[in-house]
Amino acid sequence: KNEVEQSPQNLTAQEGEFITINCSYSVGISALHWLQQHPGGGIVSLFMLSSGKKKHGRLIATINIQEKHSSLHITASHPRDSAVYICAVREFGNEKLTFGTGTRLTIIP
Amino acid sequence: DAGVIQSPRHEVTEMGQEVTLRCKPISGHNSLFWYRQTMMRGLELLIYFNNNVPIDDSGMPEDRFSAKMPNASFSTLKIQPSEPRDSAVYFCASSFQLNEKLFFGSGTQLSVL
């Protein structure tokens, strides 16, 4: 069974700070997803990646397949970035996603 | 495109009643997923379809749960009879193909009293 661990569980930062959220998993994967869930409950897929790095606006996601680790970075953080960020991984030959427990991010103005 | 549409947004029912949750995937998407989210267990996959065919329902908790996808634009998740422990947020998601980016609906908040 693939274990997906995220750190930190909770993160509070000041507006403008650089944010890093980490995700580690235990078995080989074909893809990793980063999801964002806002206080209203809706879930948005931010990134799906299987190698290297992806960037979208102020968000950057990286993955190191050898180390079984991914990071989500937010530059120039803003209060609207406040949300729960969830990492999910897909194992080879299996369409199921295994989800991390999420990181609750709060950005203070 | 309106995105993945789920209904109802909220459902409150009494134990023993039948509950039907509905999902309309994004037009052209071939894969549809039903997830459940609780505080205790986080997000869990219940079942997924590809080209309207159920591929893996091993996440369905028990026989009280059933899901159908009669055509490419509609899916239902039914709980009969419902129990208080079924209270959760149920999300539907779709993707163009398996292994591609997921698009989530707004979820159905289910409360079984």
Folded structure, characterized:
The complex is a heterodimer of chains A (109) and B (113). Chain A has 109 residues and is mainly β. In chain A, 0% of the residues lie in helices and 61% in strands. Chain A has no helices and eleven strands. Chain A has strands at residues 4-7, 10-14, 19-25, 29-37, 43-49, 52-56, 59-64, 69-74, 83-91, 97-99, 103-108. In chain A, strand 9 and strand 10 (97-99) form a beta hairpin. Chain A starts with a strand and ends with a strand. Chain B has no helices and eleven strands. In chain B, strands 2, 4, 5, 6, 9, 10 and 11 form a seven-stranded mixed β-sheet that branches. In chain B, strands 1-3-8-7 form a four-stranded antiparallel β-sheet, with no helix packed on it. Chain B is globular. The model of chain B has no long low-confidence stretch (mean pLDDT 94). The chains are: A mainly beta (109), B mainly beta (113). The A-B interface holds A 30-31, 33, 35, 41-45, 48, 86, 88, 90, 95-97, 99-102 and B 42-45, 48, 55-56, 59, 89, 91, 93, 98-104, 106-107, 109.
